[in-house]
Specification:
The chain is an all-beta fold. Helices cover 0% and strands 39% of the residues.
Length: 57
């Protein structure tokens, strides 16, 4: 069985992206990204409600 070796792990400050750089068979390079998408919304809410993650309120 061929091993996949993680050469580098990168963390981005965009809300949760992680990139893995991996090699297989010493010459094939793979890059895999795990991305977390966020949407920021502005709207009207009840002042007694707690802020919702990903909102500007």
């Amino acid at each position: 069985m061929e091993e996949i070796i993680i050469e580098e792990v990168m963390f981005w400050m965009d809300g949760g992206t992680i990139t893995l750089r991996m090699t297989k068979e010493e010459s094939i390079l793979y890059e895999v990204e795990f991305v977390q998408k966020m949407s920021l919304e502005k709207g009207i809410r009840d002042p007694e409600d707690k802020p919702i993650p990903g909102s500007l309120l």
